[in-house]
């Protein structure tokens, strides 16, 4: 990593115990300064904090047995927790949101509900969760601090973000209600870092396990990193570490990343 550069990444590991070798190999090779993880699929006691620390990272995590689970890793530092739940529903006990400060920025790590099958209660939950995120995101955007929202949003923003929308028309990831909420979030002023960096390029972050979709590059872009007005001007690059998806028994997601001018971010954070 070049001097004065900060790298933030998000990675749906799809089971942190089974994918731990992949995670550690990625951390060693790509060395993100901040990494947001989703779908830990492990209780808090099952989080491999010893291995993570041995790799040079501090961590916060919120697990859940068999499902969900989110974590924030920081290279050479301990993230400072600011929130463990998405506000707006005290009865919601799913582990889908974690917020912390690390390396001069505030990061909201999220695993937005999939919503399938739709219509139905799972899709209703997805939309309600999305509405709660939109409300909370407004306060983060207006906080005056550099903020990133990073994670698996389970939304394909446009038809340009999927290899072929026709076979996914009934999927919750492409429904008008899901896409409208994503656009409503962006309308607050958030910048979609990957699309900002690659306006005319088809980029995917997810390839399911069916019909050789990985081998055929039949992918979807559902992992996003959004930047507020304090952070967006510092954006340098964004991309996807596709090589991780090509590993044996890999997660169906690949890590998505952005880089910033770190020194400028830190100066702004102190104001």
UniProtKB/TrEMBL annotation:
CDD domains: ExoIII-like_AP-endo (cd09086). Mg(2+) binds at residues 12, 39, 152, 154, 252-253. Residues 9-253 form the Endonuclease/exonuclease/phosphatase domain. Its cofactor is Mg(2+); Mn(2+). SUPFAM superfamilies: DNase I-like. The record marks 154 as: Transition state stabilizer. One of its GO terms (biological process) is DNA repair. Coiled coil: none annotated. Keywords: Hydrolase, Magnesium, Manganese, Metal-binding. Probably binds two magnesium or manganese ions per subunit. The record marks 223 as: Important for catalytic activity. The record marks 253 as: Interaction with DNA substrate. The active site is at 111, 152 (proton donor/acceptor), 253 (proton acceptor). Pfam families: Exo_endo_phos. One of its GO terms (molecular function) is double-stranded DNA 3'-5' DNA exonuclease activity. It comes from the Bacteria. Belongs to the DNA repair enzymes AP/ExoA family. This is Exodeoxyribonuclease-3. The lineage of its organism: Bacteria, Pseudomonadati, Pseudomonadota, Gammaproteobacteria, Lysobacterales.
